[in-house]
Automatic annotation (TrEMBL):
Keywords: Cytoplasm, Nucleus, Ribosome biogenesis. This is Ribosome assembly factor mrt4. Component of the ribosome assembly machinery. Nuclear paralog of the ribosomal protein P0, it binds pre-60S subunits at an early stage of assembly in the nucleolus, and is replaced by P0 in cytoplasmic pre-60S subunits and mature 80S ribosomes. Residues 126-196 form the Large ribosomal subunit protein uL10-like insertion domain. Pfam families: Ribosomal_L10, RL10P_insert. The lineage of its organism: Eukaryota, Viridiplantae, Streptophyta, Embryophyta, Tracheophyta.
Length: 229
């Protein structure tokens, strides 16, 4: 790798949330990773599930290291321009750290990383505010999947139910959620009770940097997005 500029002093006076010392530790850890690993990827994520991500990270623990957190701190660590990047071309990676994203440092071949990220997905129950992926409507009649003890709770979720000879009964058709619309807290709870999973936790590779080259994977990113300012 080219000569490192990682010892250049860095100003973190604007980052207050977790404390200056923590931010500096993150910066130093990222700069150490630049030297240790062959390449670094920016990735984005949908419907993050911390436990599932921890499992994915553990699978790659021997060959890779992941960073999630403040994009600004990660950008400071890498350098945001040619003038302050810690290794040639890293400012291009920095410019693509946007929104829900993170860094993956690895020594695995790029084909292996692409395969692992492309193949990974995990389904889970959607949370309040998530967009419904389908319309779910319950028809009038008995709801055999629920015990009679559930009837008061279901009523609190807005469902028109009653007990009929110990069986929970829907007295009229009920729309739990509509495709394309955000889920209310009640809708999210009912979907969980019904066992309907609408959230897919996925990871997407955005770009890759190594000392030899730089690649952008995500469609729609123009060359101007990674040009130095």
């Amino acid at each position: 790798m080219p000569k490192s500029k990682r010892n250049r002093p860095v100003t973190l006076s604007k980052t207050k949330k977790k404390g200056r010392e923590h931010k500096e530790n993150v910066v130093n850890s990222i700069r150490d990773a630049v030297e240790k690993y062959d390449s670094v990827y920016v990735f984005s994520f949908e419907n993050m599930r911390n436990l599932k991500f921890k499992e994915f990270r553990e699978r790659l623990k021997s060959s890779s290291r992941f960073f999630l957190g403040s994009n600004k701190v990660m950008q400071v660590a890498l350098g945001r321009s040619v003038a302050d990047e810690i290794s040639s071309g890293l400012h291009k990676i920095s410019k693509l750290l946007r929104g829900d994203s993170g860094l993956c440092f690895t020594s695995l071949p790029k084909e292996e990383i692409q395969r692992l990220f492309d193949e990974y997905e995990d389904y889970d129950f959607a949370r309040t505010g998530s967009t419904a992926t389908e319309t779910v409507e319950l028809k009038e009649g008995p709801l055999d999947q629920f015990t009679h003890e559930m009837e008061p709770f279901l009523r609190k979720q807005g469902m028109p139910v009653r007990l009929n000879k110990g069986v929970v009964e829907l007295v009229s058709d009920f729309v739990v959620c509509e495709e394309g619309k955000p889920l209310s807290p009640e809708s999210a709870r009912i979907l969980r009770l019904l066992g309907i999973k609408m959230a897919t936790f996925k990871l997407h590779l955005i770009c890759r940097w190594s000392s030899e080259d730089f690649e952008v994977y995500k469609e729609g990113l123009e060359d101007s997005d990674v040009e130095s300012s």
